[in-house]
Structure formats: structure tokens, C-alpha cells
Amino acid sequence: MAHSDPPADPDPARWTVTLTGAVADPQSVRASDLAALETVSAEVATGCEGETTAPDRWRGVRVGTLLDRSRPRADASHALVSSADPDFACGFDLNRLRDALLAVRLDGDPIPTERGGPVRLLVDDADCWERIKWVSRIDVRTEPPTEDDTARDRVPADD
Q1: Structure pTM?
Q2: Whole-angstrom distance, CA of residue 122 vs CA of residue 55
Q3: Are the C-beta atoms of 8 and 158 separated by less than 8 Å?
Q4: β pairing state of 101-106 and 120-122
Q5: Comparing C-alpha atoms, which of 122, 137, 155, 116 is closest to residue 10?
Q6: Which of 22, 64, 87, 89 could disulfide-link to 82, CB 3.0 to 4.6 Å?
Q7: Per the UniProt record, which residue ranges are transmembrane (predicted)?
Q8: Tens digits of per-residue pLDDT, 98-115?
């Protein structure tokens, strides 16, 4: 299983998450501006493959908040969430993704790059490969992403 290297420039003041695709109002939001939206906290353990880790305290914005701002089309049903690693993305049912957290803080501080900062996707009951580090893009779609769109076999090193 391959692991990704962290991005070269993870500065939250310059890092953007773009929400595009089957939406009426595409959005690009700086990581530093995500915290200005309605934020929530969640305790999530991020260990993989049988690792037992204590839950961490994450804070961020629900993906649904950004979806509401971008107004997905009525026929939108899925999304492809991409990492800054150009070879890593994961497809989701839009209803499941709506409740996911785009985390921007870990234990009260900006998320360290090695832990997936500045923006990390945390999905309830997620498989390891679905907790995406370095989120850079959410592409809303009218059909499920194909296996060619995703990267289940390329899991960024998790912590």
C-alpha cells in the first residue's frame, strides 16, 4: 500500500477547498475561512488496519454547510472528494457526505500537516481510506464516481 507525502505549501491562509460540479454556485473557500462558518466538534479516532488509537478532538465545518452554500442540483447524488495528492480521491453518496466533518482544528490548534492539515475529511463509520488528508476539492456529481476516479489502494499514512 502506497503512502502519500504531505503537500509542500499547507498554509491555511492560502489553502483552498473548491466545491464544484453539479451545483448552482461553485465555491472556493480558504481553510482559514472555514472556521468562520458554523463549526462543530467531534471526537474521532483515526487509527487504521486494526490500530487502536484514542479519539482526538477535531473541530471544523460540516460538508453540508458548504453544500447548502453551493446549492447542489436536484439530480446530484454523489461527490468525489480529492486530496492535494493528485492520485488520491474517494467517492461518497451525497447524503452520507453531508454529515461529514471538514476538520480544520485538532485539539484546539491548526491540524499539523502530517495529520492531514490544513483540512481533513472525517466521515462517521469511515474506512481508513475514506478519512482524506489535505482535502482540496469536492466535485458534486449526478452519478457515483467510478473505481478509476478513486484511489482505495493509495492510503495516506494515517495518524
Answers
A1: 0.84
A2: 12
A3: no
A4: antiparallel
A5: 116
A6: 89
A7: none
A8: 999 999 999 989 999 888
Q: Which residues contact 141 (CB under 8 A, 6 or more apart)?
A: 21, 22, 76, 77, 78, 79, 80
SS3 state of residue 157: coil
Superfamily of chain region 18-141:
Oxidoreductase, molybdopterin-binding domain (3.90.420.10)
User: 105-154 pLDDT, tens per residue?
Assistant: 999 899 998 888 999 999 877 666 678 889 999 999 999 988 777 755 44
Instruction: Lay out the sheet containing 27-30: strands in order across.
Output: 27-30, 16-21, 135-141, 78-83, 89-93
Neighbours of 18 (CB within 10 A): 16
Residue 67 CB-density burial (10 A; 0-12 exposed, 13-18 middle, 19+ buried): buried
Q: Are 140 and 21 within 8 A, CB to CB?
A: yes
Residue with cell 454556485: 25
Q: What is the largest CA-CA distance in the chain?
A: 42
According to DSSP H, which parts of the chain are helical?
31-34, 63-70, 94-98
Residue 73 grid cell: 442540483
Helix (H) or strand (E) holding 62: strand 56-62
Distance CA 42, CA 22 (A): 29
